[in-house]
Amino acid sequence: MALGVLxxxxxxxxxxxxxxxxxxHKWLYREVGDGHLLxxxxxxxxxxxxxxxxxxxxxSITPFSGGSGLPELKTMLSxxxxxxxxxxxxxxxxxxxxxxxxxxxxxxxxxxVGPFVHLSVMISAYLGRVRAKTMGESQNKAKEIEMLAxxxxxxxxxxxxxxxxxxLFSIExxxxxxxxxxxxxxFFAATCGAFMFRLLAVFxxxxxxxxxxxKTRFRVDVPFDLPEIFFFVALGAICGVLxxxxxxxxxxxxxxxxxxxxxxxxxxxxxxxxxxxxxLILASITYPPGVGRFMxxxxxxxxHLRTLFDNNSWALMTRNSSPPWPAEPDPQNLWFEWYHPRxxxxxxxxxxxxxxxxxxxxxxxxxxxxxxxxxxxxIGAAAFSGAVTHTISTALLAFELTGQIVHALPVLMAVLxxxxxxxxxxxxxxxxxxxxxxxxxxxxIRGRKIGSHPVSVEHFMNSTLTILAKDMPLEEVIKAVTSxxxxxFPLVETRESQILVGIVERTHLVQALQTEPASWAPxxxxxxxxxxxxxxxxQPVTLQLSPETSLYQTHTLFDLLxxxxxxxxxxxxAVGSVSWVELKKAxxxxxxPPAPK
Amino acid sequence: MALGVLxxxxxxxxxxxxxxxxxxHKWLYREVGDGHLLxxxxxxxxxxxxxxxxxxxxxSITPFSGGSGLPELKTMLSxxxxxxxxxxxxxxxxxxxxxxxxxxxxxxxxxxVGPFVHLSVMISAYLGRVRAKTMGESQNKAKEIEMLAxxxxxxxxxxxxxxxxxxLFSIExxxxxxxxxxxxxxFFAATCGAFMFRLLAVFxxxxxxxxxxxKTRFRVDVPFDLPEIFFFVALGAICGVLxxxxxxxxxxxxxxxxxxxxxxxxxxxxxxxxxxxxxLILASITYPPGVGRFMxxxxxxxxHLRTLFDNNSWALMTRNSSPPWPAEPDPQNLWFEWYHPRxxxxxxxxxxxxxxxxxxxxxxxxxxxxxxxxxxxxIGAAAFSGAVTHTISTALLAFELTGQIVHALPVLMAVLxxxxxxxxxxxxxxxxxxxxxxxxxxxxIRGRKIGSHPVSVEHFMNSTLTILAKDMPLEEVIKAVTSxxxxxFPLVETRESQILVGIVERTHLVQALQTEPASWAPxxxxxxxxxxxxxxxxQPVTLQLSPETSLYQTHTLFDLLxxxxxxxxxxxxAVGSVSWVELKKAxxxxxxPPAPK
Lengths: 597, 597
Prior knowledge:
mainly alpha, 25 helices, 6% strand, Clc chloride channel, 2 domains, homodimer, three-stranded mixed sheet
């Protein structure tokens, strides 16, 4: 509950602050006069300054604050430890940076879903630490991961005030399996967050009562004709194909930016300059008296969403009358922004889609806190965003946002069609980013072929173990410890038998070796047993693999239990170890077999 | 897709047939004249005959066809094998029995959700077997369980044409964790089912197009005032308390019926007589000219749902005019059935709730195929049914059924409030039935206390293993095999070392022992090693526990991997085994510690 309320407060406060900044920008743009140069400058300087500050500030505090954070969280939920990623000091950097990014409005065209999930998870980790400290409990990694899964739901729910899709979206994006316990906790926290978020809007007199954010209205009796179903599915398929194009372009452009000589140098030496440059390009294109006129660039992100959900046939409404282009967007008739007498509504919509397609790809390369879900949702709504993120709950999000669910079946069918295409052709936006950022991750085993492949642990385990035996002389122990940097050593009974009896943590062992040098008289044959007896704690081996365990089984184990390392024993003898590194290698070998030499 | 389409056809055909039977009953009741005796007989004989046939027919074919089937499926999904439960021969019994049960209409007041999940799972298991046979693949238990999880979603989706809540409800009810893969498959199958189900209604000219089943309409701008939220939550809490009362009464009445001398004897000797007796009681009470007049007993189940979702203030509408009691329900004004000039709407509603409460408990004791979700949903809608089943997705079901989602937040809060109370006080309807039916199951470990309790495998493992050693003489092997009936034996290297090297299946060993008696010349010391070399296959031990593994860890393993048995090794030596029986015992000891003697 604390998490939900806190996140709602942050979300609402951020929206409020951003609204003020955007209004100030609009005021400046309006008051600066009719001179084209001044107007152009007032339009572009704002986002350039905000983005370079956002990029510079957040990156100077922590390099972890860039991007949405969802790919990193996904790897964390799969059990990989990313040190400091959830540290509360990243919080300020992310909040300030994200506010600046969002304050640029639709010029840069970015959202806040991903960063809010990251913020929510940071707060939850912090609350967990505080709780553990006050209750005097030790921290529990499994519990922590459970908390994270619930926190992710809160992040989505407090952005859209949509608890159902918040929970489902976070589940689909973040993990490959989840427990029903987390799901309930997620629902509770997300409901608290969404309720608080909407309650604040009521208290601030923005709303009369708690309703959906983007209200629209459809006919209940005959919301659509039966043959329209076909067009829904076709639209879904088109969105699926386009999402593949988008994912392909996005991944390769990111790679290009990172490998191209000039951009790579610029990114390495001065991230704010790169951000400023990109912002200048994006802002110049969206300059309303210029090309921006044809892509409704004066609308904010929220207004874009409102026109998306506006249930009016614009084409019919403009057939006989041609509304004038107002001096500034008319809140009652936002869709006027989309109309141009010569281009017609369809022209501006098509132009908008084409331009935003590559502009969004450019915007995603800027190293600063920003979310990429909202722009994708505006461009292609439920089916496109579902295909890009490989999720189905975007359909539910559309229902919760609009308060209308009569199109449940056709929308779901469109999203499924889009997902079938994109999941078969491209990794999801988040998986693609994980690969591009070279984050550690455990690939999924897809399809029957690999599942039934007779690869077992003995084929891929790490068999060059540094084993500590109880009867090892101390010199050998020290040599073994210094020769490697693994965090855990398998402990065996004797050098001869190699029977695994426990695990020694590197830190404990080093501590014990450093604190007890006095008793090791030279000449006296001191062995590891003495160190262990002297107070170095060992851990029991609670789970062991066999060389015969199949790859599929091992993968399931690691995936379900979010394990770090397991030791492999054969007839009690320690013969190897498996971590996600070995697993990943084994799986990629299966997927892309090495070329025969 | 095949599963979805098949289930939709079955669901639609069953609805159609039931509709005809119900109409025939109505016709008979109308045409029989005004004589009270004849009317009473025509009202009661129908359900009595149908129920005794349903009970007798289905029980004569298979004892598994009774009840909803969800509790049994839940235990199956947790890894316990219930032989023959998914056999296709149960299918006919369940379909015919269920049709008869449902044809009694609201007299007996039962639904079809649970049995449809069971039917869907049966078909899916059958399709899986057909697929495996045609593809020449061997059956895979993990794959089978995945199929079952998806099939459960189809069952719910084809009853309510609600794919989202179908998937979520089946997840919440059936398993304690699930993989996102199953979730996607479930969505696909459920969407196919729901689409087909609604398409049939369009083709049959019942509907103009595909819409929600129970259409209603709320104001979009101000669906409710903010303070009403409090009453939503209060209503949820009341539903939570009532659900506890219901669950408590239901479980104890079931126990009473099974232990009471007369009813137990009746149930054991003649289930149809018991069904007929119960049907006679229920039908007599609902006789419309009698007490049934005050509980809208002339409405069918679907009509009950329609009046539930009817967005009209009945109290206001009846303030000035008192509608007459029509000769039969008026399809345009179904709510007239709820009105009585003296009782008023509130009187009949209260009477209905009180009467149906215990009548439903009586109806659940009848041994025949029937679902108990629908009546619970009619009595208390989302919050009550969510509390009784311990699920949250009933909220989503209400939205999908009505095509209205503007009340998302308050309904979700009511359901959460109801769930908090019922989950803390009572096992869910399904868990309660599992306990009452004494089905095998793995209890959940709830709360931190037990999770962090220092109980480890050595405290509860079964340490009286029947171990087979490779150097065991054959007489000893035979003695060991005949002395116990376990399905698997741990195989150790030598009697002295006890190092675990593999697993021998009982069936394989018995076969090998029976087929090779010729070579065992008397006097010649033949040992197990020879049998194994002679062709008895052994399986590798792919996963081992240690005596130090904690109860919590072991529980997580069994729960996530749906395991049957794991062997425990200490320094390579086989020292014990753990199955869900030991686990269950250990957990119940923790929850209810034995009284000190």
